[in-house]
Amino acid sequence: MEEKTVYNMPGYSWNINEKKYQDFYRQSIKDSDLFWETQAKQLVQWKKSWTKVQNWDFYTGTIRWYEEATLNVSENCLDRHLQKRADKIAIIWEPDNPDEPTRIIRYAELHRQVCKCASVLSDLGVRKGDRVCIYLPMIPEAAVCMLACARIGAIHSVVFGGFSPESLAGRINDSKSKILITADQGLRGGRYIPLKANADKACHQTPSIEKVLVVQRGKQDINWVAGRDVWYHEQMEKASDMYDAVEMDAEDPLFILYTSGSTGKPKGIVHSSGGYLVYTACTFKYVFDYREDDVYWCTADVGWITGHSYIVYGPLSTGATVLMFEGVPTYPDASRFWHVVDKHRVSVFYTAPTAIRALIARGNEFVTCTDRSSLRVLGTVGEPINPEAWEWYYRIVGKQRCPVIDTWWQTETGGIMITSLPGAMNMKPGSASLPFFGNVPAIVDDKGNVLQGEANGNLVLTRSWPGQMRSIYGDHERYVKMYFSTYPGNYFTGDGARRDKDGFYWITGRVDDVINVSGHRIGTAEVESALVLHESVAEAAVVGCPHEIKGQGIYAYVTLCDGYEPSDELQQTLRGVVRKEIGGLAVPDVIQWANALPKTRSGKIMRRILRKIAANEVESLGDISTLADSTVVEKLIIQKKQQK
Ligand code: 6R9
Questions:
Q1: How many angstroms separate the CA atoms of 141 and 107, rounded?
Q2: Which long-range CB contacts under 8 A does 46-50 form with residues at least 24 apart?
Q3: Looking at CB atoms within 10 Å, which of 159, 391, 446, 644 has the fewest?
Q4: Contact present, 412 and 469 (Cβ < 8 Å)
C-alpha cells in the first residue's frame, strides 16, 4: 500500500509535542508501574491506596490493577469537583428537535440528581453488586442512572435503545438484572422509539426483573403494569438528596456491556472500577488535549462503549463540560452537527467515519454555511476511516486548523489504545498512528510469530493496561479462550493491521466473523441464527460487504426449504425476523437466494468465497479446489446477476 500524505500540525501550543510523546512513551514502557502509579495519583481520588500497581497474567486471563485500593467512581465524577467546579456545566443536553429547549446541568445539580437517583434505586432494593439494566435514549438521565449505580456499587448494563425486546431480554437474563430503567419513549430524527413497549415485551421473559423504573421523555400513552412499574420523576421528587458513596475495591466491576463476538450470543464485557477510571481519565486528557474551558462533544450513544468511556466516565471524572445529543446528524437537515457546534461553541468534537460519510453525501454547503471557529480538535472512532472521509473532515469541517485524531480501541479495551495525539505526531489519513502510553501492540502472523518492522498481520497487545476488560460475565473460560488462546501470552484483538516504516499502525478491519456496520459490531452468527428461525430457511450464511456509507453492509445468503419459493415478500419477512430478534441495525442489506452454499468436504461453509462474491470480486476467488462441489460457486455468481 502506498503511503498517503503526511500533514504537519498547525501551529498551536499543544499539551504534548513530539519530543514529549517520545519521552513519555519510553518512560511508560520502561517503568510501567511508575507511569501508572503517577497517573492514578494525579487523575483519581482514592479512599485507600494500592499495595501493587499491576498483577496480571495473559495465560490465565487474570488481570488486576491497583490491588487492594478502594474508591468510588461516582464520587470521582462528582463530589470531588464540587469545591472548584460546582457551578461549572457538566452536561449540555441538546434535544432531537432544535426548537425544544437545551438542558444545562451543572456539577452541583448533577451531584444532587445522582444522589437522589441512588436513593431511589436503593429504596427499590438495589444493593452493591446487583445488576441494573439501563435501556434509555440519549437523555441526561442515562448518565445520572449510570453514576447512581456506581455510587451504590451496583453494576450497570446499558442496552442500546435500538435493540429489540428479544435482545434486551437476552441481556437482562444473562446478567440477571434486578431493575430495568427505561423511558416511555425515545426520539430520534423526529421519530418515536417505543422503548417502554419494547421493555414490556422483554419483561415477559425476564424473571429476574422486580421493578421497571420509567423516565418520562414524551407524552405518549403507555401501558402500565401496576406493582412493577414506577415513574422516575415521582420517585426522584421525594427521594433524599444525600447518599454516601459506597467504598469499592479497585477490582469490583463497574459495569457490564454486551458486544458481539465471532461466535454465539453477545458476551457481557466486564470492566473494573479503579483501572477503568484511571485509563479513561488518562486517555481523555491526553488524546483530546483537554483544557478546562473546553466544550467537548462525543456523538456516540451511551449504549456503546464510546458513550460509557468518553461521554460519561472519562470526561466527568476530569471535570469537563460534555455535550450530549439526542438526535441524528441529518435532522432536521445535514447542518445539524455544525449548528450545534456553533450554538454551544464546541471545541472538541468526536464522531464516527460513518457519520462523516453520510454528511459528505449531502454536500459541502451544509457545512460551509456554519462558522465552526470554536473547533480545536476533531476525533474519529469505530472503524477505519477512508482517506477521502479523513480529508473532508480535515479540510471542510476543520478548515485545516484542527488535527484529526483517529482513535483505535474496542469495547474490551475500555479506552483508546492506538491513536494520534494532537501536536505530538504527524497525521497520516487512514492510520490510527501510534500506541498510547503504556501500550505495546505487536503484529503476528497466523502461526503467532511476532513480525518486526514493516509488517502486515494480526494485531495483538503484548501487555496489560488498566482499562482492560476483566472477564466475560458468568463465563471466564470463554474470556480466556476468546482473547488469550489464539496467540498465547498475548491479548488478541480480532483485528488485522499493518505497520509502516515509521511504526504507524493501519487497522485493516476484523479478521474474525464480526461485521462492523456503521461502527457497530454485529456477529455473523447472530444474524444467521435469527434467519434460520424462520420456517422457510434451511440454511443461512452471512458476510460483510463494502458499503459506501456504513463501511460494511450485511450480506446474507439464504437457502430455502423445499416447498418455499424466493419472493420479495419473503425477503421482507426475513428482514422482519432479524429486526425482531436483534434490532434494526442487524437487518441484512442484501438477501441473496442460494440453491446451495460453498462448503469444504468436512461441511464447513467457505465464507472467504461468499465475501468475494458479495464484494463483486469474482476474478480473485482464490483456491476453490477444496470445495465439496465447486459448481456451487458458479451458480451463486449467476444467481447474483439474475437477482439484480
Ligand atoms: C470503540 C469501538 C471495536 C472494533 C475494533 C475495530 C473497529 C474501532 C477503529 C476501528 C479502525 C479505528 N475500530 N475504532 N478500526 N480504526 N479508529 O468502536 O468499540 O464497538 O467494540 O468496536 O471497531 O475493528 O475491533 P467496538
A1: 14
A2: 46/70, 46/71, 46/274, 47/71, 47/72, 47/247, 48/247, 50/250
A3: 644
A4: yes
Question: Kind of pairing, strands 520-523 and 514-517?
Answer: antiparallel
Q: pLDDT value at position 391? A: 95
Ligand 1 probe mutation, 521, 552, 585, most atoms within 8 A of CB: 521
- Print the SS3 string covering 168-199: HHHHHHHHCCCEEEEECCEEECCEEECHHHHH
- Residue among 407, 427, 507, 513 to mutate when testing ligand 1 (max atoms within 8 A of CB): 507
User: Which pLDDT tens digit goes with each residue over 254-272?
Assistant: 999 999 988 788 999 999 9
Q: Report pLDDT for 630.
A: 85
What is the whole-number distance in angstroms between the Cα of residue 12 and the centre of ligand 1?
29
- pLDDT score of 112 more than 50: yes
State the Cα angle at 184 between 181 and 185, rounded to 5°.
110
For residues 27 and 611, give the distance between their C-alpha atoms in angstroms, rounded to a whole number. Answer: 44
For the four alpha carbons of 118, 120, 121 and 124, in that order, the dihedral sign comes to positive
Find, among 461, 308, 438, the residue nearest to 35 by Cα. 438
Rounded to the nearest 10°, the torsion over CA 115, 117, 119, 120 is: 170
Q: Name every residue whose Cβ is closer than 8 Å to that of residue 376 and which is 6 or more positions away in sequence.
A: 12, 289, 294, 347, 348, 402
In the block, residue with C-alpha cell 451504590: 152
Contact 496, 512 (CB under 8 A): no
Give the residue whose CA is nearest to atom 3 of ligand 1.
410
Is the pTM higher than 0.90? The answer reads yes
DSSP state of 394: I
Output the pLDDT for position 1: 45
Residue nearest to atom 10 of ligand 1 (CA): 383
| H or E element that contains 517 | strand 514-517
Q: Any alpha helices (H) in 86-177, and if so which ranges?
A: 107-123, 140-152, 165-175
Cα 319 to Cα 45: distance, rounded to the nearest angstrom:
13
Q: Give the residue, by CA position, lying nearest to ligand 1 atom 16.
A: 384
